[in-house]
Design goal:
By secondary structure, this protein is mainly beta. 4% of the residues lie in helices and 59% in strands. The longest helix is centred in the first third of the chain and has 8 residues. The relative contact order is 0.21.
């Protein structure tokens, strides 16, 4: 019996293999995108990358397609300064809607101990922001909005290692390309104007006897220099952990913990004014999963809420996500 087959039989899971259509409907209130990077929005939101049984790759080969809309509203107030588009803003409010369109292909392998896949994330963004741009000794309020193609993401290869039916590891690197519109001095850019790589590890462990699942996701966001503003965002370490207690094959409850820690200073003329602008935050909150329909099609509902604390140079708030997953058999 393969690892994926065993997991699917034991516990409900959001489908990640071929013949899959996943529609994630997400609404996040007061979310916390990393502001310790140029552009105001980093590559990682607390608690977003981790998924139930996210380290299971394959073993069935074939194409899949995922679409996941995410929305969030956030604010950094108190007159705190934020580097955006090569300028310095204060008291920024942002409303952002992002749609991820993700085709994926799982390759056929000769051994059930190994799974391989490649994927691409096309991104459509809408950004509405307002704040006060700082000009020498005075400020001027501004409000802008913009919509269109955001920065796309390439995942050339994900390697899934099935240590056992219940113990899985996935290794990959996400590559963020600057395909979104970026204009210096603009408060509502659709992209960051720079390349980013995110090497990452995901791990899933299933304790069948207790009906428990443990998931972890660890990554590093490593930014290149923005050629327009000469700003280089500091590398960001992030960890997300999730534990789920299944009450039945259809219902599970759990908790999510998250940490963002910038491991070196931002660099560039604006970063020097802000003394490196390092950011960090912790987050924790509950989640629930419900399998409304097992197959033809499979329907899975997921609810998440992450409350943030110990926040520095980031938006501080609460993230609420409601997701709907459909699996076409």
């Amino acid at each position: 019996m393969t690892a994926k087959t065993a997991l699917t039989k034991q516990l409900p899971r959001p489908p990640v293999s071929n013949q899959l259509l996943m529609i994630g409907i997400a609404f996040a209130i007061g979310a916390a995108p990393a502001l310790a990077v140029e552009g105001g929005l980093g590559r990682t939101l607390p608690g977003v990358w981790i998924q139930p049984q996210g380290a299971v790759v394959g073993p069935e080969s074939g194409f899949s397609f995922t679409t996941m809309p995410i929305g969030y509203m956030g604010r950094i107030g108190g007159g705190r300064l934020v580097p955006i588009g090569g300028s310095i803003f204060a008291s920024v409010d942002a409303n952002v809607s992002t749609n991820y369109l993700v085709p994926q292909y799982v390759y056929k392998t000769e051994t059930p101990k190994l799974g391989l896949s490649s994927s691409f994330m096309g991104v459509i963004n809408w950004v509405g922001s307002n704040g006060s741009v700082q000009l020498n000794n005075f400020s001027r309020s501004t409000s802008t909005s913009n919509g269109g193609v955001g920065d796309s993401v390439i995942v050339p290869l994900t390697v899934g290692i099935h240590f056992s039916d219940n113990n899985n590891l996935a290794i990959s690197t996400m590559i963020f390309a600057p395909t979104g519109q970026f204009r210096p001095g603009n408060l509502s850019n659709l992209g960051m104007g720079e390349w980013t790589i995110m090497p990452n590890l995901a791990h899933t462990y299933l304790w069948e006897k207790r009906g428990l699942e443990f998931d972890n996701f660890v990554g590093f966001d490593i930014y290149s220099q923005n050629s327009s503003t000469k700003y280089t965002s500091g590398a960001m370490f992030h960890w997300d952990g999730m534990v789920i207690q299944y009450l039945s094959k259809r219902v599970g409850f759990g908790a999510i913990g998250s940490n963002l820690t910038q491991i070196n200073n931002d660099r560039g003329p604006v970063a020097d004014v802000l003394h490196g602008f390092e950011g960090r935050a912790w987050g924790i909150g509950p989640m629930a999963l419900y399998v409304a329909k097992v197959e033809k099609p499979g329907v899975v509902l997921q609810l998440r809420w992450v409350n943030e604390f110990e926040v520095t140079n980031l938006l501080k708030g609460n993230m609420l996500v409601l997701g709907l997953t459909l699996k076409l058999n």
